[in-house]
Amino acid sequence: MRLSVVIPVLDEEARIVAALDALAPLRAAGHEVIVVDGGSRDRTLEHARTRADRALVAPRGRSVQMNVGACAARGDALLFLHADTRLPVDAADAVARALSGRSRWGRFDVTIDGRTSLLPIVAGAMNLRSRATGIATGDQAIFVARDLFDQVGGYPPIPLMEDIALSTLLRRHGGRPACLPTRVTTSGRRWDERGAWRTVATMWRLRYDYWRGADPRVLAPRYGYATPTRPPTLLVFAKAPVIGRVKTRLAAALGDEGAATLYRELAERTLKTARAARSAGIFDAVELWCDHSGHGHPAMLDWSRRYGVALREQHGDDLGARMQQAMSSVLKGGRAAVLIGTDSPALDVGYLAHAASALQRHDAVVGPAEDGGYVLVGLARELDIFGGVAWSTDAVMVATRAHIAAAQASWAELPMLWDVDRPADVDRYRRTLVRGPEAAASRACAA
Protein backbone atom coordinates (compact mmCIF):
# COMPACT_ATOMS: atom_id res chain seq x y z
CA MET A 1 0.00 0.00 0.00
CA ARG A 2 1.34 3.39 -0.99
CA LEU A 3 0.42 6.22 1.37
CA SER A 4 -0.02 9.85 0.31
CA VAL A 5 0.44 12.34 3.15
CA VAL A 6 -1.30 15.66 2.45
CA ILE A 7 -0.29 18.69 4.53
CA PRO A 8 -2.24 21.99 4.27
CA VAL A 9 -0.06 24.94 5.31
CA LEU A 10 -0.25 28.68 5.77
CA ASP A 11 2.69 30.76 7.02
CA GLU A 12 4.39 27.76 8.63
CA GLU A 13 8.00 28.76 7.90
CA ALA A 14 9.01 28.17 11.51
CA ARG A 15 7.73 24.57 11.50
CA ILE A 16 7.64 23.25 7.95
CA VAL A 17 11.29 22.18 7.71
CA ALA A 18 11.13 20.05 10.86
CA ALA A 19 7.73 18.68 9.83
CA LEU A 20 8.96 17.54 6.43
CA ASP A 21 12.31 16.28 7.67
CA ALA A 22 10.39 14.04 10.07
CA LEU A 23 8.61 12.52 7.06
CA ALA A 24 11.81 11.78 5.13
CA PRO A 25 11.79 8.08 6.18
CA LEU A 26 8.27 7.73 4.75
CA ARG A 27 9.42 9.13 1.42
CA ALA A 28 12.46 6.88 1.45
CA ALA A 29 10.10 3.91 1.86
CA GLY A 30 8.20 4.86 -1.32
CA HIS A 31 5.34 6.87 0.15
CA GLU A 32 4.69 10.44 -0.94
CA VAL A 33 4.33 13.80 0.80
CA ILE A 34 2.27 16.60 -0.75
CA VAL A 35 2.22 20.13 0.69
CA VAL A 36 -0.58 22.50 -0.30
CA ASP A 37 0.03 26.14 0.52
CA GLY A 38 -2.90 28.48 1.10
CA GLY A 39 -1.10 31.72 0.19
CA SER A 40 1.77 31.98 2.67
CA ARG A 41 3.61 35.29 2.79
CA ASP A 42 6.75 33.74 4.27
CA ARG A 43 9.12 31.06 2.92
CA THR A 44 6.87 28.08 3.65
CA LEU A 45 6.40 27.17 0.00
CA GLU A 46 10.09 27.62 -0.79
CA HIS A 47 11.05 25.13 1.92
CA ALA A 48 8.31 22.70 0.90
CA ARG A 49 9.49 22.54 -2.70
CA THR A 50 12.82 21.09 -1.64
CA ARG A 51 11.47 18.59 0.90
CA ALA A 52 8.16 17.30 -0.45
CA ASP A 53 7.27 15.27 -3.51
CA ARG A 54 4.90 18.02 -4.63
CA ALA A 55 4.29 21.54 -3.37
CA LEU A 56 1.04 23.04 -4.65
CA VAL A 57 -0.79 26.35 -4.25
CA ALA A 58 -4.51 26.62 -3.56
CA PRO A 59 -7.04 29.13 -2.23
CA ARG A 60 -6.82 29.54 1.52
CA GLY A 61 -8.86 27.06 3.55
CA ARG A 62 -7.92 23.64 4.90
CA SER A 63 -10.75 21.77 3.19
CA VAL A 64 -9.93 23.17 -0.26
CA GLN A 65 -6.20 22.73 0.24
CA MET A 66 -6.60 19.10 1.31
CA ASN A 67 -8.92 18.37 -1.61
CA VAL A 68 -6.37 19.81 -4.02
CA GLY A 69 -3.66 17.67 -2.46
CA ALA A 70 -5.86 14.60 -2.74
CA CYS A 71 -6.39 15.25 -6.44
CA ALA A 72 -2.63 15.22 -6.98
CA ALA A 73 -2.05 12.14 -4.82
CA ARG A 74 -0.99 8.82 -6.34
CA GLY A 75 -1.35 6.65 -3.26
CA ASP A 76 -3.82 3.91 -2.39
CA ALA A 77 -4.61 5.70 0.87
CA LEU A 78 -4.59 9.33 1.97
CA LEU A 79 -3.45 10.71 5.31
CA PHE A 80 -4.19 14.33 6.18
CA LEU A 81 -1.63 15.84 8.51
CA HIS A 82 -1.38 19.25 10.15
CA ALA A 83 2.01 20.93 9.91
CA ASP A 84 2.34 20.95 13.70
CA THR A 85 1.52 17.26 14.13
CA ARG A 86 4.13 14.46 14.15
CA LEU A 87 3.42 10.89 13.10
CA PRO A 88 4.76 7.85 14.97
CA VAL A 89 7.61 6.02 13.23
CA ASP A 90 5.38 3.09 12.26
CA ALA A 91 2.53 5.24 10.93
CA ALA A 92 2.50 3.80 7.41
CA ASP A 93 2.49 0.22 8.68
CA ALA A 94 -0.25 1.04 11.19
CA VAL A 95 -2.43 2.55 8.46
CA ALA A 96 -1.79 -0.42 6.16
CA ARG A 97 -2.82 -2.88 8.88
CA ALA A 98 -5.96 -0.91 9.68
CA LEU A 99 -7.07 -0.64 6.05
CA SER A 100 -6.30 -4.26 5.26
CA GLY A 101 -8.98 -5.32 7.75
CA ARG A 102 -12.58 -4.22 7.91
CA SER A 103 -11.90 -0.51 8.32
CA ARG A 104 -11.78 1.81 5.33
CA TRP A 105 -10.78 4.90 7.27
CA GLY A 106 -9.52 5.90 10.69
CA ARG A 107 -7.40 8.13 12.88
CA PHE A 108 -4.70 7.98 15.57
CA ASP A 109 -4.93 8.73 19.25
CA VAL A 110 -3.33 12.09 20.02
CA THR A 111 -0.92 13.53 22.56
CA ILE A 112 -0.84 17.32 22.90
CA ASP A 113 2.59 18.82 23.49
CA GLY A 114 2.46 22.13 25.33
CA ARG A 115 3.03 24.03 28.56
CA THR A 116 -0.49 23.86 29.93
CA SER A 117 -0.98 21.16 32.55
CA LEU A 118 -4.54 20.55 31.37
CA LEU A 119 -3.44 19.24 27.95
CA PRO A 120 -3.18 15.52 28.87
CA ILE A 121 -6.80 15.69 30.03
CA VAL A 122 -7.84 17.46 26.84
CA ALA A 123 -6.10 14.83 24.71
CA GLY A 124 -7.61 11.97 26.69
CA ALA A 125 -11.09 13.44 26.36
CA MET A 126 -10.56 13.96 22.62
CA ASN A 127 -9.56 10.32 22.14
CA LEU A 128 -12.46 8.98 24.21
CA ARG A 129 -15.00 11.21 22.50
CA SER A 130 -13.76 10.11 19.08
CA ARG A 131 -14.09 6.43 19.99
CA ALA A 132 -17.62 6.97 21.28
CA THR A 133 -18.90 9.10 18.38
CA GLY A 134 -16.90 7.85 15.41
CA ILE A 135 -15.96 11.47 14.67
CA ALA A 136 -12.28 12.36 14.18
CA THR A 137 -10.51 15.71 14.33
CA GLY A 138 -7.74 16.97 12.09
CA ASP A 139 -5.28 16.81 14.99
CA GLN A 140 -5.69 13.02 15.00
CA ALA A 141 -4.29 12.57 11.44
CA ILE A 142 -7.32 11.22 9.58
CA PHE A 143 -6.52 8.52 7.00
CA VAL A 144 -8.82 6.98 4.40
CA ALA A 145 -8.78 4.55 1.50
CA ARG A 146 -8.60 6.49 -1.74
CA ASP A 147 -11.71 4.94 -3.25
CA LEU A 148 -13.80 5.85 -0.20
CA PHE A 149 -12.52 9.44 -0.23
CA ASP A 150 -13.52 9.73 -3.89
CA GLN A 151 -16.87 8.08 -3.18
CA VAL A 152 -17.88 10.69 -0.58
CA GLY A 153 -16.61 13.57 -2.71
CA GLY A 154 -13.72 14.61 -0.48
CA TYR A 155 -13.85 17.26 2.20
CA PRO A 156 -16.95 19.44 2.04
CA PRO A 157 -15.61 22.88 1.00
CA ILE A 158 -16.39 24.71 4.24
CA PRO A 159 -14.03 27.00 6.21
CA LEU A 160 -14.51 25.30 9.58
CA MET A 161 -15.68 21.92 10.93
CA GLU A 162 -14.42 20.22 7.77
CA ASP A 163 -13.06 17.30 9.80
CA ILE A 164 -16.44 16.69 11.47
CA ALA A 165 -18.23 16.96 8.11
CA LEU A 166 -15.85 14.50 6.47
CA SER A 167 -16.05 12.07 9.40
CA THR A 168 -19.83 12.08 9.13
CA LEU A 169 -19.66 11.22 5.44
CA LEU A 170 -17.01 8.53 5.92
CA ARG A 171 -18.93 6.93 8.76
CA ARG A 172 -22.10 6.90 6.66
CA HIS A 173 -20.46 5.27 3.63
CA GLY A 174 -17.51 3.41 5.15
CA GLY A 175 -18.59 2.43 8.64
CA ARG A 176 -16.92 3.33 11.91
CA PRO A 177 -13.29 4.44 11.92
CA ALA A 178 -10.27 2.47 13.04
CA CYS A 179 -9.19 4.25 16.23
CA LEU A 180 -5.49 3.47 16.48
CA PRO A 181 -3.99 3.57 19.98
CA THR A 182 -0.66 4.52 18.42
CA ARG A 183 -0.28 8.22 19.13
CA VAL A 184 0.47 11.25 17.00
CA THR A 185 1.87 14.29 18.79
CA THR A 186 0.35 17.66 18.01
CA SER A 187 1.33 21.12 19.16
CA GLY A 188 -0.55 22.67 22.06
CA ARG A 189 0.20 26.20 20.85
CA ARG A 190 -3.42 27.29 20.46
CA TRP A 191 -4.26 26.10 24.01
CA ASP A 192 -1.10 27.75 25.38
CA GLU A 193 -1.69 31.03 23.55
CA ARG A 194 -5.43 31.36 24.10
CA GLY A 195 -5.77 29.59 27.44
CA ALA A 196 -6.80 25.97 27.81
CA TRP A 197 -10.24 26.45 29.36
CA ARG A 198 -11.09 29.29 27.00
CA THR A 199 -10.03 27.26 23.95
CA VAL A 200 -11.99 24.19 25.01
CA ALA A 201 -15.08 26.28 25.74
CA THR A 202 -14.83 28.06 22.38
CA MET A 203 -14.47 24.80 20.46
CA TRP A 204 -17.42 23.22 22.24
CA ARG A 205 -19.62 26.28 21.57
CA LEU A 206 -18.68 26.19 17.90
CA ARG A 207 -19.36 22.46 17.68
CA TYR A 208 -22.74 22.92 19.35
CA ASP A 209 -23.71 25.75 16.99
CA TYR A 210 -22.58 23.69 14.00
CA TRP A 211 -24.66 20.76 15.25
CA ARG A 212 -27.65 23.09 15.45
CA GLY A 213 -27.15 24.03 11.78
CA ALA A 214 -25.10 27.24 11.91
CA ASP A 215 -23.28 28.13 8.68
CA PRO A 216 -19.53 27.34 9.00
CA ARG A 217 -18.80 30.60 7.12
CA VAL A 218 -20.41 32.48 10.01
CA LEU A 219 -18.61 30.39 12.63
CA ALA A 220 -15.13 30.72 11.09
CA PRO A 221 -14.42 34.32 12.25
CA ARG A 222 -15.37 33.32 15.80
CA TYR A 223 -12.52 30.80 15.73
CA GLY A 224 -10.08 33.43 14.49
CA TYR A 225 -10.22 32.61 10.78
CA ALA A 226 -10.65 35.37 8.24
CA THR A 227 -14.07 35.70 6.65
CA PRO A 228 -13.86 33.45 3.59
CA THR A 229 -13.97 35.10 0.18
CA ARG A 230 -16.37 33.89 -2.44
CA PRO A 231 -14.71 31.47 -4.88
CA PRO A 232 -14.43 32.53 -8.51
CA THR A 233 -16.52 31.14 -11.35
CA LEU A 234 -14.90 28.95 -14.00
CA LEU A 235 -15.83 29.62 -17.63
CA VAL A 236 -15.11 26.91 -20.20
CA PHE A 237 -15.08 28.09 -23.82
CA ALA A 238 -16.01 25.29 -26.21
CA LYS A 239 -17.49 24.53 -29.61
CA ALA A 240 -19.92 21.84 -30.60
CA PRO A 241 -17.92 18.84 -31.89
CA VAL A 242 -19.22 19.18 -35.47
CA ILE A 243 -17.28 17.24 -38.09
CA GLY A 244 -15.36 19.64 -40.32
CA ARG A 245 -15.67 22.61 -37.94
CA VAL A 246 -13.34 21.75 -35.04
CA LYS A 247 -9.59 21.09 -34.97
CA THR A 248 -9.45 21.87 -38.67
CA ARG A 249 -5.66 22.24 -38.60
CA LEU A 250 -5.45 18.59 -37.64
CA ALA A 251 -7.82 17.34 -40.32
CA ALA A 252 -5.03 16.66 -42.81
CA ALA A 253 -3.46 14.19 -40.36
CA LEU A 254 -6.55 12.79 -38.64
CA GLY A 255 -9.35 13.39 -41.12
CA ASP A 256 -12.40 15.53 -40.33
CA GLU A 257 -14.05 12.80 -38.28
CA GLY A 258 -10.87 11.99 -36.37
CA ALA A 259 -10.32 15.68 -35.59
CA ALA A 260 -13.88 15.98 -34.25
CA THR A 261 -13.44 12.83 -32.14
CA LEU A 262 -10.23 14.24 -30.66
CA TYR A 263 -11.95 17.55 -29.92
CA ARG A 264 -14.77 15.79 -28.10
CA GLU A 265 -12.26 13.77 -26.07
CA LEU A 266 -10.31 16.87 -25.03
CA ALA A 267 -13.48 18.80 -24.20
CA GLU A 268 -14.83 16.04 -21.97
CA ARG A 269 -11.47 15.69 -20.22
CA THR A 270 -11.55 19.43 -19.51
CA LEU A 271 -15.11 19.29 -18.21
CA LYS A 272 -14.22 16.40 -15.87
CA THR A 273 -11.36 18.45 -14.48
CA ALA A 274 -13.63 21.49 -14.11
CA ARG A 275 -16.21 19.43 -12.22
CA ALA A 276 -13.53 18.08 -9.89
CA ALA A 277 -12.25 21.60 -9.23
CA ARG A 278 -15.73 22.78 -8.34
CA SER A 279 -16.28 19.79 -6.04
CA ALA A 280 -12.99 20.59 -4.30
CA GLY A 281 -14.30 24.07 -3.49
CA ILE A 282 -11.97 25.97 -5.84
CA PHE A 283 -14.88 27.43 -7.83
CA ASP A 284 -18.43 28.25 -6.87
CA ALA A 285 -19.78 27.35 -10.31
CA VAL A 286 -18.74 26.17 -13.76
CA GLU A 287 -20.25 27.61 -16.92
CA LEU A 288 -19.94 26.16 -20.42
CA TRP A 289 -19.82 28.91 -23.05
CA CYS A 290 -20.49 27.88 -26.65
CA ASP A 291 -20.62 29.85 -29.87
CA HIS A 292 -23.94 30.79 -31.47
CA SER A 293 -24.05 27.82 -33.85
CA GLY A 294 -23.51 25.30 -31.09
CA HIS A 295 -25.87 26.63 -28.42
CA GLY A 296 -28.61 24.05 -29.04
CA HIS A 297 -26.35 21.25 -30.20
CA PRO A 298 -27.10 17.86 -28.58
CA ALA A 299 -23.48 17.45 -27.45
CA MET A 300 -23.59 20.76 -25.60
CA LEU A 301 -26.87 19.89 -23.92
CA ASP A 302 -25.47 16.49 -22.96
CA TRP A 303 -22.29 18.01 -21.50
CA SER A 304 -24.32 20.52 -19.53
CA ARG A 305 -26.41 17.74 -18.02
CA ARG A 306 -23.66 15.18 -17.38
CA TYR A 307 -21.13 17.57 -15.86
CA GLY A 308 -23.60 19.81 -14.04
CA VAL A 309 -22.54 23.01 -15.77
CA ALA A 310 -24.67 25.96 -16.81
CA LEU A 311 -24.85 26.47 -20.58
CA ARG A 312 -24.18 29.99 -21.87
CA GLU A 313 -23.96 31.52 -25.36
CA GLN A 314 -21.00 33.60 -26.53
CA HIS A 315 -21.59 37.00 -28.14
CA GLY A 316 -19.11 39.23 -29.96
CA ASP A 317 -17.40 39.81 -33.28
CA ASP A 318 -14.13 38.09 -32.41
CA LEU A 319 -12.67 35.86 -29.72
CA GLY A 320 -11.54 38.82 -27.61
CA ALA A 321 -14.99 40.39 -27.60
CA ARG A 322 -16.59 37.07 -26.72
CA MET A 323 -14.22 36.50 -23.81
CA GLN A 324 -14.74 40.04 -22.55
CA GLN A 325 -18.51 39.62 -22.64
CA ALA A 326 -18.42 36.31 -20.81
CA MET A 327 -16.08 37.48 -18.08
CA SER A 328 -17.96 40.75 -17.62
CA SER A 329 -21.16 38.81 -16.98
CA VAL A 330 -19.46 37.29 -13.92
CA LEU A 331 -17.38 40.25 -12.77
CA LYS A 332 -20.39 42.57 -12.69
CA GLY A 333 -21.88 40.30 -10.06
CA GLY A 334 -18.90 40.85 -7.78
CA ARG A 335 -17.22 37.51 -8.47
CA ALA A 336 -13.81 36.78 -9.95
CA ALA A 337 -13.72 34.76 -13.17
CA VAL A 338 -11.30 32.24 -14.66
CA LEU A 339 -11.63 31.32 -18.35
CA ILE A 340 -10.14 28.25 -20.05
CA GLY A 341 -10.41 26.49 -23.38
CA THR A 342 -10.46 22.76 -24.01
CA ASP A 343 -7.13 22.25 -25.80
CA SER A 344 -4.67 21.74 -22.93
CA PRO A 345 -4.59 18.20 -21.48
CA ALA A 346 -1.91 19.30 -19.00
CA LEU A 347 -4.35 21.65 -17.26
CA ASP A 348 -5.36 19.89 -14.04
CA VAL A 349 -7.06 20.63 -10.72
CA GLY A 350 -3.79 21.84 -9.16
CA TYR A 351 -3.27 24.35 -11.96
CA LEU A 352 -6.78 25.69 -11.58
CA ALA A 353 -6.29 25.94 -7.82
CA HIS A 354 -3.12 27.97 -8.36
CA ALA A 355 -5.03 30.36 -10.63
CA ALA A 356 -7.86 30.82 -8.12
CA SER A 357 -5.32 31.46 -5.35
CA ALA A 358 -3.55 34.08 -7.46
CA LEU A 359 -6.80 36.02 -7.86
CA GLN A 360 -6.98 36.45 -4.09
CA ARG A 361 -3.96 38.77 -4.37
CA HIS A 362 -3.88 40.02 -7.96
CA ASP A 363 -6.14 41.70 -10.48
CA ALA A 364 -5.34 39.12 -13.15
CA VAL A 365 -3.74 35.73 -13.70
CA VAL A 366 -2.55 34.21 -16.97
CA GLY A 367 -1.38 30.70 -17.85
CA PRO A 368 0.90 30.96 -20.90
CA ALA A 369 1.04 28.32 -23.62
CA GLU A 370 4.13 27.07 -25.41
CA ASP A 371 2.82 28.33 -28.76
CA GLY A 372 2.73 31.96 -27.61
CA GLY A 373 -0.90 32.06 -26.52
CA TYR A 374 -2.39 31.15 -23.18
CA VAL A 375 -4.41 28.27 -21.76
CA LEU A 376 -6.03 30.26 -18.94
CA VAL A 377 -6.88 33.83 -18.06
CA GLY A 378 -8.52 35.11 -14.89
CA LEU A 379 -9.70 38.50 -13.68
CA ALA A 380 -10.65 39.75 -10.22
CA ARG A 381 -12.00 43.03 -11.61
CA GLU A 382 -13.03 44.51 -14.94
CA LEU A 383 -10.01 45.05 -17.21
CA ASP A 384 -9.91 45.71 -20.95
CA ILE A 385 -7.17 43.28 -21.97
CA PHE A 386 -8.71 41.50 -24.96
CA GLY A 387 -9.02 44.26 -27.55
CA GLY A 388 -6.64 44.52 -30.51
CA VAL A 389 -5.03 41.10 -30.00
CA ALA A 390 -4.03 39.07 -33.08
CA TRP A 391 -5.66 35.81 -32.03
CA SER A 392 -4.25 32.41 -33.10
CA THR A 393 -0.74 33.85 -33.42
CA ASP A 394 2.39 33.53 -31.32
CA ALA A 395 1.98 37.18 -30.22
CA VAL A 396 -1.11 36.65 -28.04
CA MET A 397 0.73 36.37 -24.71
CA VAL A 398 3.02 39.31 -25.48
CA ALA A 399 0.03 41.52 -26.29
CA THR A 400 -1.84 40.36 -23.19
CA ARG A 401 1.08 41.22 -20.91
CA ALA A 402 1.24 44.66 -22.49
CA HIS A 403 -2.49 45.26 -21.99
CA ILE A 404 -2.37 44.26 -18.32
CA ALA A 405 0.67 46.46 -17.70
CA ALA A 406 -0.98 49.39 -19.49
CA ALA A 407 -4.00 49.04 -17.18
CA GLN A 408 -1.60 49.33 -14.21
CA ALA A 409 -3.02 46.08 -12.88
CA SER A 410 -1.19 43.48 -10.84
CA TRP A 411 -0.99 40.00 -12.30
CA ALA A 412 0.43 36.55 -11.70
CA GLU A 413 1.82 34.30 -14.40
CA LEU A 414 1.49 30.54 -13.96
CA PRO A 415 3.87 27.87 -15.29
CA MET A 416 3.75 27.40 -19.06
CA LEU A 417 1.61 24.55 -20.44
CA TRP A 418 1.09 23.08 -23.89
CA ASP A 419 -2.01 22.55 -25.96
CA VAL A 420 -3.04 20.33 -28.86
CA ASP A 421 -2.91 22.20 -32.16
CA ARG A 422 -0.44 20.32 -34.39
CA PRO A 423 0.04 16.64 -35.33
CA ALA A 424 3.08 16.46 -33.03
CA ASP A 425 0.85 17.64 -30.17
CA VAL A 426 -1.51 14.74 -30.81
CA ASP A 427 1.33 12.26 -30.39
CA ARG A 428 2.36 14.03 -27.20
CA TYR A 429 -1.18 13.85 -25.90
CA ARG A 430 -1.46 10.13 -26.63
CA ARG A 431 1.71 9.53 -24.66
CA THR A 432 0.23 11.26 -21.60
CA LEU A 433 -2.61 8.74 -21.57
CA VAL A 434 -0.21 5.90 -20.82
CA ARG A 435 2.11 7.73 -18.43
CA GLY A 436 1.13 5.57 -15.49
CA PRO A 437 0.44 6.58 -11.84
CA GLU A 438 0.32 10.35 -12.34
CA ALA A 439 -2.20 10.20 -15.16
CA ALA A 440 -4.25 7.61 -13.26
CA ALA A 441 -4.43 9.89 -10.22
CA SER A 442 -5.67 12.78 -12.32
CA ARG A 443 -8.37 10.62 -13.89
CA ALA A 444 -9.52 9.33 -10.49
CA CYS A 445 -9.84 12.84 -9.11
CA ALA A 446 -11.70 14.17 -12.12
CA ALA A 447 -14.10 11.22 -12.38
Features:
447 residues; single chain; Spore Coat Polysaccharide Biosynthesis Protein SpsA, Chain A; alpha/beta; 2 domains; 7-stranded mixed sheet; 18% strand; 8-stranded mixed sheet; elongated; 44% helix
Query: Shape, please?
Result: elongated
Mean pLDDT: 93
Question: What's the total number of strands?
Answer: 15
Largest sheet: 8 strands, mixed
Architecture of the largest domain in CATH?
A: Alpha-Beta Complex
Low-confidence stretches: 436-444
Classify the oligomer.
single chain
Helix/sheet category: alpha/beta
Number of helices: 18
Structure description:
The protein is built from 18 helices and 15 strands. The chain is of the alpha/beta class. It folds into two domains: 3-223, Spore Coat Polysaccharide Biosynthesis Protein SpsA, Chain A (Alpha-Beta Complex), CATH 3.90.550.10; 233-446, Spore Coat Polysaccharide Biosynthesis Protein SpsA, Chain A (Alpha-Beta Complex). The strands form two sheets. An eight-stranded mixed sheet has the order 3-2-1-4-7-6-8-5, with helices on both faces. Strands 11-10-9-12-14-13-15 form a seven-stranded mixed sheet, sandwiched between helices. Helix 3 links the parallel strand 2 (32-37) and strand 3 (54-57). The longest helix is centred in the middle third of the chain and has 29 residues, at 251-279. The relative contact order is 0.10.
